[in-house]
Amino acid sequence: MTHLLITRRAALALAVALPLLLGALVRPALADEGMWTFHNFPNAKLKQQHGIELSDEWLAHLRQSVVRLSGCTATFVSAEGLILTNHHCAAACLAENSRQGQDRLADGFVSRSRDEEIKCSTQVADVLMGREDITAKLAAAVAGKDDKTAGEIRKRTLTQLEQACVQAAGTTDPRRCETVSLYQGGQYFLYKYKRYTDVRLAFAPEDSIAAFGGDPDNFQYPRWCLDMTLLRAYENGKPAKIEHFLPVNWDGPKAGELVFVAGHPGSTDRQLTVAQLEALRASLPASLLRSAELRGRYIQAAQAGGETGRIMSDPLMSLENGIKVRRKQLDALLDGTLMAQKSRDEAALRQLAKLGGANDPWVAIAKAEQRGLELQLPLTYIEGSAGFNSSLFRYARTLVRAAAERSKPNEERLREFTDSSLVPLQQRLFAPVPVYAEREKLTLSLGLMRLREMLGPDHPLAANLFKEISPEALADDLVNKTTLGDAAVRKQLWEGGTAAIEASTDPMIRIARLVDAQARTLRKQFEDEVESPIETASERIAKARFAAFGTAVYPDATFTLRLNWGTVQGWNENGSAVAPFSPLRRAYERATGAEPFRLPDSWLKARDRLNLDTPFNLSSNNDIVGGNSGSSMVNARGEVVGLVFDGNIHSISGSYWFDTARNRAVSVHPAIMKLALTQVYDTAALAAELGLKR
Q1: How many CA atoms lie within 13 A of 49 on its CB side?
Q2: What is the pTM of this model?
């Protein structure tokens, strides 16, 4: 039930209109919609819909079994630190451990002993251990302050709270402390994580079976993707001892069975105002245009094959996925019917909240979003680095800014350079990840060309950069002469601090220094004129929403741990029923021998001994978005019965609203994982650890 916390006078005034307002505004989670926090899981709703209730012990065990990776989710599945996640969540690790003549992304990887497991140098694994409500502390800190001052104080206070949390943890229990905003600033929490910084790769199939169907099949269903990987967390050079992990039920779920997905959905915008959605809609075409042009360059370069094809394949795959997501998000925001519903919902809340007048928060947000669109072009190309699209430039900017920020008191730094952020930042910066000159020149030259085109050749930065050289020649010169591809050089510059950065003659460092002042100015403008007013106004709207409904609605996703439920089911697509399970035999029937429908030799050789009726992938109506990749699907007994890796095409609009009739999550079935580990690949030790017999 929704509880309205309103005064008696307001109740009388709304007596007639309230049923209509509730119908439009609450729109309580229909069917299995919802990305619920563990501390506010709606057990009563679950019991009403499905007749079961989850105990506190069940929830705590699941919470501590789930892992947050860099951009993905995973699950501990053994007491020896074994982690189950998606293949595409480990693609960067496979790529960084590849070299000419050894393509681990294409060929896969199998460790036959723990000594063979390979380090993923940029990967970390976080487990949520606890939380603290800091809403009142933030509210007290910003009370009575104007938007700009409140924004500055808010950031400073968040940094202070994070730092105090880290200091309180000491050295005996490594923690990562992060402040989290829920309900657009209606609540603030301090999340406390145990972090594993030594993560190694134990098993990955070939890319051609993990991503069978490639971009044509992406966000489609039925699917035939073995999108699975096994990682392992280490502590002090040894496999981590894990108390909370989940067993795998290799039979998987039945059609119609209740299942849960615990993971870290990246972001949703379901509680944004109409003005914010309109601003997103206005910004997407430019983003799509940049990505489409870069995609064309990647494809052209990859056609050379060989080593060039290898180094272009991973970023191309990621880019194609992003293009499809943004294209369907734009389609959703262009849907007049759904946007009209958003407008009606907003009008109902505004009538209920009575926040009009000179300080109307919806008007303030609309004004700030308009200013954001005005700043968007230079902000994107200069501070956002679209004009300097290069991992080498990103290294340079990190080094330049870190030198300046680390000399300041912790609470006065940019948020990404606070003490609590430095350890993961250094891990990424010092990782010996290969840098490919050919790819760097391709992306950087295009960025520089478009910077000159979009800002204009007379823009001060463009005029300075290109007064004696073309964008293409500048990109070649920067990439050829920089030494930042060497992790040892980056570490030396980091440790040398401001003196080393100021003395450096590295051309990429010099460019980063040249750009930094203007980039910081743009960032400050955006924070003061767009971000801060929106934060203040959003908090006022959140308070009005809380006054009416409390936490009876779930917060937007923020790449923090969430839990939802659903059932294994297909859907109806243009009058045709889509079955929830896809059998292995159809993978062989669809295989053409040419990418992206080529099955690897390991599967072709194994065909005659495999049960072709083995379920491969499955669909369910769980509410997921990007970031849920690698989430385990769990049954009511706490067993893994699936591995989420994608959604269908209708799930992309889940950024803004949930279509209960057609929005579906897509998972790898445990039966195909068992078959792969016991009958296709030589994984005897890993299979035994998972309780499997060959």
Answers
A1: 17
A2: 0.91
